[in-house]
Specification:
Blueprint lengths: L1 E6 L2 E4 L4 E9 L7 E6 L6 E6 L5 E3 L7 E6 L4 E6 L8 E7 L2 E2 L3 E6 L1
Length: 111
């Protein structure tokens, strides 16, 4: 079982930047795909960005050009750099890998 712990959320104004971090620990035997999902109040959880073991990335259309996912394999950590934040980015952001979810970190963007 892999444990995922997110950090870096907060309250910011529109146009600001935030960087989320997710540290993985536990039974990690190979470099897994990792990603970020988010869930806004009253909405379904949606994929934000994903990075594969080969560092290929994929983004939701709504964040392309603004968000960047990256990973540090030596530290078993994945990051989500979020720029030009919008109020519609407000959500709980969850870290994901195969078989595991983090508990989430709140991101609130005020207009």
């Amino acid at each position: 079982q892999v444990k995922l712990v997110e950090s870096g959320g907060g309250l910011v104004q529109a146009g600001a930047s935030l960087t989320l971090s997710c540290a993985a620990s536990g039974s990690i035997f190979r470099i897994p795909p990792m990603g970020w999902y988010r869930q806004a109040p009253g909405k379904q959880r949606e994929l934000v960005a994903i990075i594969t073991s080969g560092d290929s990335t994929n983004y939701a259309d709504s964040v392309k050009g603004r968000f960047t996912i990256s990973r540090d394999n030596a530290e078993n950590t994945v990051y989500l750099q979020m720029n030009s934040l919008k109020p519609e980015d407000t959500a709980v952001y969850y870290c994901w890998t195969i078989g595991s979810w983090g508990r989430g970190t709140q991101v609130t963007v005020s207009s």
